[in-house]
Amino acid sequence: MRAAVCRGGKSGMKKKILLIEDEETTARYLYSFFTNAGFTLVIAPSAADAIALVQTELPDIVLLDLQLPDVDGLTLLERMQKIQPELTVLILSGITDETIKKEALAAGAKEFVSKSATASHLLMLVDRAIKSKAV
Predict the structure, then answer these.
(1) At 11, is the secondary structure helix, strand, or coil?
(2) Which of 7, 39, 63, 104 has its CA 20 to 30 A from that of 30?
(3) Does the predicted model carry a pTM greater than 0.85?
(4) What residues form DSSP beta bridges with 114?
C-alpha cells in the first residue's frame, strides 16, 4: 500500500484524520467508515509516509498503529510531535501490553485504543479529541 490522500465527499471544513496503518484491510475499512461519517482521511502505510503527510496535510487527528514496517509507533509519535507539537494522536493497536500503553500515553498519545474496539467507539474518541482540542 502506498501513501494516499483519500477524500470522502466534499472537502472544505471537514476534519482531517491521518491514519498511519500498514494493514490494507484495516485502512480500507477505516477509510470507508470515517469518510461516511464526514471526515477527510489521509492514509500513510509507513512512518516515512506519515512524516511527509504530517507536514503537508496538517491533520486534526492522527490514528497511529504501533507496529509499522519501518519504525515503531512510539518513535514515530516522538518524531511527529517535534514537527507539530500540538498534534493530537490516538494509538490504534493490536498490542495489549499495559506497559506499552502507559509508555504511549506518557509519550503524549491522547488515547490508546484496541484494534478490536468498535468503529463507533473509535468515532466517539475522535470526536471527543477534536472537541477538547477546540476548547
Answers:
(1) coil
(2) 104
(3) yes
(4) 93
